[in-house]
Amino acid sequence: MSNSSHGAQQSQTQAKLVLLGDMGAGKSSLVLRFVKGQFFEHQESTIGAAFMTQTVTVDDHVVKFEIWDTAGQERYHSLAPMYYRGAAAAIIVYDMQSQQSWQRAKSWVRELQRQGNANLVIALAGNKSDCKDMRKVSKEEAEAYAEEQKLSIFLETSAKSGECVNDLFYSIANKLPKQARATPQEGGRGGVVLDANAGQNRQKSQCC
Amino acid sequence: MDEEYDAIILGTGLKECLLAGVLSKEGYKILHLDRNAYYGAESASLNLKQLFEKFRPEEFSSAKGGENSSKESEKVFEEKLKEKYGRWQDWNIDMVPKMMMGNGLLVKLLVHTGVHNYVSFKASEGSYVFKQGKLFKVPATDKDALRSPLMGMFEKLRARSFFVFVQDYDETRVETHKGYDLRTMTSRQLYKEYGLADETIEFIGHALALYTDERYMDFPAIHMVKAVKLYEESLARFNTGSPYIYPLYGLGELPQGFARLSAVYGGTYMLNKPDAEVKWNEETGEAIGVSATMEDETVGAGEGEEKKGPQVVTAKAKHAIVGDPSYFPKHSVQVGSVARALCFLSHPIDNVENAHSVQIIIPASQVGRKNDVYVFGCSYMHNVCAKGRYVAFVSTNVETANPEQELASGLSLLGTIDEKFVHICPIMAPTTDGIKEKAIISRGYDATTHFESTVRDVLDMYRRVTGKQLDLSQIDANEAATE
Ligand SMILES: Cc1cc2nc3c(=O)[nH]c(=O)nc-3n(C[C@H](O)[C@H](O)[C@H](O)COP(=O)(O)OP(=O)(O)OC[C@H]3O[C@@H](n4cnc5c(N)ncnc54)[C@H](O)[C@@H]3O)c2cc1C
Ligand SMILES: Nc1nc2c(ncn2[C@@H]2O[C@H](COP(=O)(O)OP(=O)(O)OP(=O)(O)O)[C@@H](O)[C@H]2O)c(=O)[nH]1
Ligand SMILES: [Mg+2]
């Protein structure tokens, strides 16, 4: 996680990225496509993955995404504030075949504008673009909305075909502030890391 | 929600979330509900709006105003708060102020479950003890101890041999026992063997073993010795001069972290269910399920499906209903109360070297009490308040009819206080282990400075739910790094 470990000239940013959107919109599928290049027709509702990481390079600058999936806590409006904490970017996903998921996406935008930090990069993704002929949400409407809300990025994506998935993540990487965003994990005076795998660094020391 | 779960958990306090996380990870199908719209229940960290809503409802509601629409008046209140205290979202004020022992049970569970990945921690900057009207830094190394004005020279030598004994003590190796059987010998007797003076004993029992009162003196010394060892190991772990660590954004991150763990393993979360209620089998006295009003659940269902409106739904539990005492009024009693004052400051606590996080112990005997008084401080550096602000907590076990007065010795150490909220919390405890009733109830949060007793309660609840012990001795969280 240090700046120097990735070659001489490269600087590295670590960025927490969160996904939001209606159940079944394709959040987990987008992550899976981006991180592993895979797609499953019958993707299980999210279980068992806390977050995944993926590194991208833009103009000699490395961005390490720490990608948080909702773990289903959004289903009954019970997402914890912890989820947004320290997030540098958010992708709000809707299924372009569903008006309901579009309405949910808009309510997530409102929620983020209220809860998220001020310089959060918000991307809107109209997913399942491989099913354009079934679409219920027009590109024009979504585009206009994204502009009106000053969202950083709007793209129509397909986790199935892979269309625009990399675009989505690279555009986000591009919009992130260049200076390494120190995550609280490392930053600041007195920060500690609890880690079961780190080497023994205890000293025999006596209290009194 | 109207399905069967292995266990249904009520209240998202730290204990309940810990249990939810551990059980889900083991494959239990969990439903977790809370009557509040936020995570944490009694052990939440509240933002500024929630804080005023809870402690100063009159200010909150007067700002809300009569005729104005409630949305508009909420805005007015937010503006009012912002003028005085900055963004209300930037505050996370602990309802149960404690710190985490660096080598304690909670840290072991965090690492064991991976939840440490969701939360960032800072080491506390110092521990102080109050003696004859002054604050002394609790020595962190043997060198510190030899320089510390807390003890005279001869006493230092006696204390030193006691600490060498404690440090070397290993219950499994008889040669380290020096002929003492600490399971039968009391702390009082062990101190006597080392000829320690009363004030050294007070320091060991209260500033190192962290006992809240003197009752431990007549219990087997093993507990005290282990407690002192825990303190030493926690100190050594981060080498920061304090055994404590504290999460960024406040302690409320901990229940959220464990709730996320549960959700990652398939746990279902529903907040904001004010009417959540345990359903009992009147004949057997067993808890069988939980009912709550659900909004229409057509989410995910085919479009055009008819909306049914809110409905009361009951979920059934196979093994147990778990929860904090507030969900089981007929099976809980009050066993004590804790008085807590939360204070906003615009400066560090006086006389602690401008520390951003600190603990001060005021031993009971120094202020003519039976129970110690504790002061905790943290600051904007921990993302719990607006930039430039500090937060201090004073707490103690209530002994008299005037609990606020009992906090005076702690409050007087703080310096100028901008805002103060005092609350008296009854500590509730279950009247049954709940195994027969299939109703596993947690104890309220005690006045101790750390989470050891909290985790012990959770481990016991785990046993009552599953019939198994969760073996933490297998878990070694010793390895850690300091940045
Ligand atoms: C009101 C009261 C009555 C008690 N009565 C008895 C008694 O009659 N007989 C007896 O043997 N013991 C008694 N104790 C002590 C306490 O119950 C024991 O420490 C407990 O049984 C744990 O034993 P252990 O060997 O599992 O843990 P230990 O190995 O002794 O402790 C491990 C760690 O947990 C911490 N810890 C242990 N107990 C507590 C606690 N209660 N609160 C906070 N931290 C704790 C210790 O500080 C230590 O660091 C009493 C305690 C209280 C508060
Ligand atoms: N045709 C098509 N199907 C997709 C696409 N993306 C996802 N799906 C399918 O949509 C379903 C839901 O996808 P998920 O990735 O699980 O959606 P999610 O948003 O993570 O859902 P939850 O975890 O339940 O909130 C799965 O059956 C996927 O295979 C896509 O781009 N095109
Ligand atoms: Mg998913």
UniProtKB/TrEMBL annotation, chain A:
Region spans: Disordered: 180-208
Keywords per UniProt: Nucleotide-binding
UniProt keyword annotation of Nucleotide-binding present: yes
CDD domains membership: Rab5_related
UniProt keyword annotation of Coiled coil present: no
MF terms in GO: GTP binding; GTPase activity
Comp. bias regions, Polar residues: 198-208
Pfam families in UniProt: Ras
Top-rank taxon: Eukaryota
Cited SMART domains: RAB (SM00175), RAN (SM00176), RAS (SM00173), RHO (SM00174)
InterPro entries per UniProt: P-loop_NTPase, Small_GTP-bd, Small_GTPase
Record protein name field: Uncharacterized protein
Organism of derivation: Bathycoccus prasinos
UniProtKB/TrEMBL annotation, chain B:
Superkingdom of origin: Eukaryota
Molecular-function GO terms, alphabetical: Rab GDP-dissociation inhibitor activity
Gene3D superfamilies xref list: FAD/NAD(P)-binding domain, Guanine Nucleotide Dissociation Inhibitor, domain 1, Guanine Nucleotide Dissociation Inhibitor, domain 2
GO process annotations (BP): protein transport; small GTPase-mediated signal transduction; vesicle-mediated transport
SUPFAM superfamilies assigned to the protein according to its UniProt record, in alphabetical order: FAD/NAD(P)-binding domain (SSF51905)
Family under the similarity heading: Belongs to the Rab GDI family.
Name of this protein: Guanosine nucleotide diphosphate dissociation inhibitor
Source organism of this protein record: Bathycoccus prasinos
Higher taxonomy: Eukaryota, Viridiplantae, Chlorophyta, Mamiellophyceae, Mamiellales
